[in-house]
Design goal:
The complex is a heterodimer of chains A (159) and B (726). Chain A is an alpha+beta fold and 159 residues long. Chain A is 35% helix and 13% strand. Chain A folds into two domains: 74 residues, Beta-grasp domain (Ubiquitin-like (UB roll), Roll); 70 residues, [2Fe-2S]-binding domain (DNA polymerase, domain 1), CATH 1.10.150.120. Chain A contains five helices and five strands; from the N terminus they run ββαβββαααα. A five-stranded mixed sheet of chain A has the order 2-1-5-3-4, with helices on both faces. Chain A is globular, with a radius of gyration of 15 Å. Chain B is α+β, with helices and mostly antiparallel strands. A seven-stranded mixed sheet of chain B has the order 14-15-12-22-19-20-21. In chain B, helix 9 links the parallel strand 20 and strand 21. The termini of chain B are far apart.
Chain lengths: 159, 726
């Protein structure tokens, strides 16, 4: 497989990996971007969620080579200072327990709010039910998404 | 030089904890018993380190060391809060640093488990903070030449009350370091919730920024120069040994650098036999692992079917009687009513979000360095030392954050494997990560259990006799980890006629601590049965339970007042007895474990065979609350985890686990998560941990609510065995 380039968090990254390698392992083991976590490897838990052209995508099931030309956003690319409305809300509500799944949860929430700036419980349930949390932070995730929607509205833009 | 006096028992006689030793650096250290140094003042140095937990820099920054490993239980925030409270510094000025596993016992127990962190650490953390604060007060008094009694500390400064002048801590460091240690026995430690400023408030996790921006934090995030990646394939049948494997082929695969068989030591909680594959990345190594062909030598074929058959046979036997109060047979003969029921729960897995992993490097100097997401680094270090013949003093363990723990990471298998592989590959750092399937198939499961209950009621509907036959798992006639039950467990001691007996099924499946071991499983049986008995007696389930807790026969098995108050408040908060309309129901359950009192009332609505848990009202009495956010987290988390667990089971066939990933071990998703309303009964009782006590009564409260809503009595887990889905 020849070298190819992926645009991750607005920066071009050069990769030389087998054509069947999922984005997850290209990120973690080749680019040392470990914010995207491994948990099930079969697209069942959402822990490895990234955004591809704004859409939540399980990076364990997406071949890196198929993402050439797409805009990939990982948790490292949201904001470094926690100023994104979703990050702010996550901190305010103190969502994380162990924190392992939260990068994926946050990106799923970002995508939800992009499409639906004021989601109700049913919309939150639907959008967030691909992401497992073993600690049971679901109650706070719901609360944080609603708060993030308020923050985003206050900022006058979409989340 | 080292003199020490062992403390006599658990009672706090602080003088007996003192320990004086001289460090190589010349620093004088005065220790708090086995819990390490209280004071290490070194005159003239810029940064002042009054004790192991606190460091104050000349710029006023306060660093507080968190000694225990963090896996989502919140200790890395809560413990430093205790020190900061007593040190009288503002939380915004505090930085928290994770301690490595100490080479000696300076920090005492550095482990996560048994909800013991809080009760074990409570005194030492308060002593550390208070002693450092008193020294700074003494330093200021010295500099001002006023009595220390005229001074007090506040927000990182010492204030002289009569004159109103103040000095920040940072300006007092040099003087403080020259002063003698305060007499630990004379320290006045804060203990009442109303004395706290920081404790009991809502404080956010100290690692939030890192988590929310995806910074490296967890064990599997470690990246070192030249690091290789490893996986370790074990026999699908527990304990099997690798006779041979197609290693020549594996070594030809892309990215693979090493492949070898490890004989292991034959114990589950250690270095199990297996085949190691090492290479340039997880993906390459996992692809190679999937091509492994191993000839395994196996010695058993345990299965769920065989366990079930043995349990059915044993149910007809008496078993071993462990306790018999009064005369159980006579009591049943005279009872006005007899209620009998049998309960069952299956094996379950830990299913930690972050699979088992550990990074290791054997340095040229002979030092073995590990980055271990472990609940018990000390146990891992001892095991690795025994496995590999490396002295413990040469094994250095970094305690890295764990993507959940729940007891699983108290085992030493993954660290033993990483250490062994690191030596075999000679010098390079290596990260072992288990595939999800290996994690689920090589767990230390919560064991299954069968409970056969028989209760006798008198004419007034009072329970006067209780016979309990527990069929559990063991090895060589002894119960294995997580499979025991104390004969003292209530309702023992709460009625005149009581008998507890057990029968043990031989089991080769590895079992281990699983969030509130034992309790998290058998509470479902007890609290479901109590509900049945109450209803059979024509009594309200709350009133029946309170009555049961009103009188003991001999020493009470639990604090009856705290138990009753917890139950009563949960009922009050939930509006127990209110009319919910059709298809809705409330269910109640209570449990005492790990020094914590927990009661929940669940509210459910039936939508056909599907049940939605709408709300859970939770009341906990664990003494004072340290971090309100962390405390609520543990209650909310236990409710969701316990609800999830009512849907789960692990089964075995031909000696191996059938489930391998989340598609057939389906954890609860957000859309089924109930609203959790939690309340704490706070008191001066010493605080205890919250990671476990809220869990046990959740499942039975929900099962009892389902009965109230639908009339279906759930006596088996998972709920689907009774035709109920969540």
């Amino acid at each position: 497989m020849p070298q190819f380039t992926l645009k991750i968090n607005g920066t071009d990254h050069s990769l030389d990996v087998p054509s069947d390698m999922p984005l997850l392992w290209a990120l973690r083991d080749k680019l040392n971007m470990t914010g995207t976590k491994y948990s099930c490897g079969i697209g069942q838990c959402g822990t490895c969620t990234v955004l591809v052209d704004g859409k939540p995508t399980k990076s364990c099931r997406s071949r890196a080579v198929n993402l050439i030309g797409k805009e990939i956003v990982t948790i490292e690319g949201l904001t470094a200072d926690c100023s994104h409305p979703v990050q702010k809300a996550w901190n305010e509500v103190d969502v994380p327990q162990c924190g392992y799944c939260q990068g994926g949860q946050i990106l799923a929430a970002v995508a939800l709010l992009e499409n639906n700036p004021k989601p109700d419980d049913a919309a939150i349930d639907e959008a967030m039910s691909d992401n497992l949390c073993r600690c049971g932070t679901y109650v706070r995730i719901r609360k944080a998404i609603k708060l993030a929607a308020e923050y985003a509205a206050d900022e006058g833009g979409a989340a | 030089m080292n003199t020490s006096i062992k403390p006599a028992g658990n009672k706090l006689d602080r003088r007996s904890f003192l320990k004086v030793s001289m460090l190589a650096s010349g620093a004088l250290m005065i220790g708090v018993g086995s819990y390490g140094t209280l004071l290490a003042g070194e005159a003239g140095q810029e940064t002042w380190i009054p004790n192991l937990y606190v460091r104050i820099d000349p710029d006023g920054k306060v660093t507080i060391i968190s000694k225990n490993p963090e896996g989502g239980q919140g200790v890395k925030t809560a413990f430093p809060m205790v020190v900061a409270e007593c040190l009288e510094v503002d939380w915004k000025d505090v930085r928290v640093e994770q301690a490595a596993l100490a080479v000696d016992d300076r920090y005492g127990r550095q482990a996560l488990g048994g909800s013991r962190g809080t009760p074990d650490g409570w005194n030492d953390l308060r002593i550390a903070g208070t002693a450092a604060k008193d020294l700074l007060v003494a330093a200021a008094a010295n500099e001002w030449t006023v009595p220390a009694s005229e001074c007090y500390a506040e927000s990182g400064a010492v204030v002289h009350k009569p004159s109103g002048k103040s000095k920040p801590y940072a300006s007092l460091l040099k003087t403080a370091a020259t002063l003698p240690a305060p007499d630990v026995s004379k320290l006045r430690l804060k203990s009442r919730p109303e004395e706290f400023k920081l404790l009991g408030t809502f404080v956010r996790g100290v690692d939030n920024q890192k988590i929310l921006t995806g910074k490296p934090l967890f064990g599997s995030d470690i990246r070192l120069d030249g690091m290789l990646y490893a996986m370790y394939q074990k026999s699908p049948v527990f304990g099997g040994k690798a006779r041979s494997a197609n290693l020549e082929h594996i070594l030809t695969l892309p990215g693979v650098t090493h492949a070898f068989i490890v004989a292991g030591t034959g114990e589950y909680n250690g270095l199990q036999p297996g085949v190691a594959v090492v290479g340039t990345g997880f993906w390459e190594v996992n692809n190679a692992r999937e091509q492994l062909e191993v000839d395994w030598e196996t010695t058993h074929a345990d299965s769920t079917a065989s366990f079930d058959a043995q349990a059915a046979k044993l149910a007809g036997e008496m078993g071993e009687v462990l306790r018999h109060d009064g005369d159980i047979d006579a009591a049943f003969k005279t009872a006005a009513k007899v209620v009998e029921a049998s309960y069952y729960y299956p094996f379950v897995a830990h299913a930690n979000m972050e699979p088992m992993n550990c990074t290791a490097q054997l340095h040229e100097s002979g030092k073995l360095e590990l980055w271990a997401p472990t609940q018990n680094g000390k146990a891992a270090r001892e095991k690795i030392s025994a496995n590999m013949g490396i002295p413990e003093s040469r094994i250095h363990i970094h305690q890295v954050r764990m993507g959940t723990a729940f007891g699983r990471r108290s085992r030493t298998d993954f660290a033993s494997e990483a250490a062994w592989i690191a030596r075999e590959i000679g010098g390079k750092p290596v990260q072992l990560v288990w595939a999800r399937e290996e994690d689920m198939r090589h767990d230390f499961y919560r064991p299954a259990g069968w409970h056969h209950f028989k209760a006798g009621l008198d004419d007034d509907g009072k329970m006067i006799a209780f016979d309990h036959h527990f069929i559990t798992m063991g090895k060589n006639g002894k119960t294995i980890s997580g499979a025991s039950l104390s004969p003292k467990h209530y309702p023992a001691g709460l009625m005149p006629n009581f008998r507890f007996r057990w029968s043990i099924i031989e089991c080769n499946v590895p079992t281990g601590p699983w969030r509130d071991p034992g309790h998290s499983a058998y509470c479902f049986a007890y609290q479901g049965f109590f509900d049945e008995v109450a209803i059979a007696a024509g009594r309200d389930p709350l009133e029946f339970r309170l009555d049961l807790l009103s009188k003991s026969y001999g020493k009470p098995p639990l604090d009856l007042v705290r138990s009753s108050n917890t139950l009563k408040l949960a009922a009050e908060k939930a509006g127990w007895g209110r009319d919910l309309g059709p298809n809705r129901g409330l269910g109640l359950a209570f449990h005492f474990s790990h020094r914590g009192y927990a009661a929940h009332v669940a509210q459910v609505v039936a939508e056909g065979a599907s049940i939605k848990v709408e709300k859970v009202f939770s009341v906990l009495d664990v003494g004072p609350i340290l971090n309100l956010s962390g405390a609520k987290h543990q209650v909310e988390g236990c409710v969701i985890d316990a609800l999830s667990t009512t849907q789960l089971e692990v089964t075995f066939e031909d000696g191996a686990t059938r489930q391998g990933n989340f598609q057939n071990y389906r954890l609860l998703k957000l859309d089924r998560a109930p609203d959790v309303k939690c309340h704490f009964i706070q008191s001066e009782n010493p605080p205890t941990g919250l990671g476990e006590p809220p869990f046990p009564p959740v499942g039975p409260a929900i099962a009892n609510a389902i009965f109230a809503a639908t009339g279906t009595r759930i006596r088996e887990l998972p709920f689907r065995r009774s035709g109920i889905t969540i």
